[in-house]
């Protein structure tokens, strides 16, 4: 949820006659959340959105938790990984999961998709670690670049087109519940408050409509129930001439997140960026360190008794960790205390600022490494605090 937005042509009143140049009606589609009680948008199609030509055999598209992995502080080292697959869907490797969310990486060889994708299982949050491109969806064109969080509500039909030059690497989160801006940052009508680290000006909805009116055969891979269902339609699903509402994909750059700092160490909730069911997303961005004369910039040990904490290291040097690279994940599990590596606390004293950039995902229910995630485990990490 961001704010009301509209693109293209829509009739003055919803659910009324809205005619094409040949006199036929446009086909209205309401896309609504929480039944009819949540946010929604109204889309106007040239063709019938149910114009299915064929349905292919579903194929499994899911991951398995490695339940025997055990209770261990974990480092998944993915920095040396090149392409993770040929195309956008085969390249998505989910490394952690529970019933609320999944998190992984995606570095496809192919920069363009020759099909559309629709995730009917959950909302997606895609962090562009490396890359620049365009998200084409029914809601229009959205330019995206390094450092963007892209929120894609479930059932949005989309494809990405990435620039051929330079590396491409995405952090992918799928959420069972809606991914939203943080409730305590909003006033009673949803506007982001003065103390919010970002505001509506930082949220970028699709900038221009993109209408594909032609007929033909268009494949939409629909993810539902952990399976991919190949649906072929008789027209492009991007046949929208206008839409309005509150439900649409948008981007928010991590570089537009304004950090909150203090005299002494500020806890992770000041970095919160999004909320969802069962987890939160926080952004650690370049900022001034604590300015109390006796401040310790490194975080204190803490035992977060009911959270599993994942940090994805995007840029910069992490003063509280050793052996962590760009593209590393650490998972600090509830039930064990965690904190700075030996020597890093003293070393942090007197430091004035940090250039670190990291994305944090904290879950409130246990998170599991997936069987694919096991390939990236750094076996030395659980004992890396040993003095
Ligand atoms: Fe922590």
UniProtKB/TrEMBL annotation:
Q: Give the PANTHER family listed for this entry.
A: HOMOGENTISATE 1,2-DIOXYGENASE
Pfam families according to UniProt: HgmA_N
How is this protein annotated for GO cellular component? cytoplasm
Q: Name one GO biological process term.
A: tyrosine metabolic process
Any one GO molecular-function label of the UniProt entry: homogentisate 1,2-dioxygenase activity
Q: Write the protein's name.
A: Homogentisate 1,2-dioxygenase
* This protein's UniProt keywords: Dioxygenase, Iron, Metal-binding, Oxidoreductase
InterPro entries according to UniProt: HgmA_N, Homogentis_dOase
Q: Does the keyword NADP apply?
A: no
Specify the Homogentisate 1,2-dioxygenase N-terminal domain's residue ranges.
Answer: 112-251
Which residues of the sequence carry a binding annotation for Fe cation? 302, 308, 338
| Active site residues according to the UniProt entry | 265
Identify the domain of life. Answer: Bacteria
Annotated organism of origin? Arthrospiribacter ruber
- Known cofactor(s): Fe cation
Under CDD domains, the record lists: cupin_RmlC-like
UniProt binding sites for homogentisate: 338
